[in-house]
Amino acid sequence: MSATVVVAGASMAGLRAAEQLRAAGWDGPITLIGDEPHMPYNRPPLSKEVLAGKAPFESLAFRPRASVADVRWRLGTKVVAADLDRRVVTLDDGEALAYRGLVVATGMRPRRLRCPGPVTGRHTVRTLADAQGLREALTRPGARVVIVGAGFIGCEVAATAVALGAAEVTVVDPLPLPMVGPLGDQLAKALLGRHEQRGVRFALGTGVTGFEGDDRVTGVVLADGTVLAADVVVECVGSLANTEWLDGNGLDLTDGVLTDGHLRAGGRPDVVAVGDVARFPNARYDGVPRRVEHWSIPTDTAKHAARVLAAHLGGGDAGLARFAPLPTFWSDQHDFRLQSFGAPALGKEDVRVLDGDPDGDVVAGYHTAGRLVGVVALGGPAAAAAAARYRAELLAQPALTA
Ligand SMILES: Cc1cc2nc3c(=O)[nH]c(=O)nc-3n(C[C@H](O)[C@H](O)[C@H](O)COP(=O)(O)OP(=O)(O)OC[C@H]3O[C@@H](n4cnc5c(N)ncnc54)[C@H](O)[C@@H]3O)c2cc1C
Question: Around Cβ 393, how many Cβ atoms within 10 Å?
Answer without folding.
Answer: 13
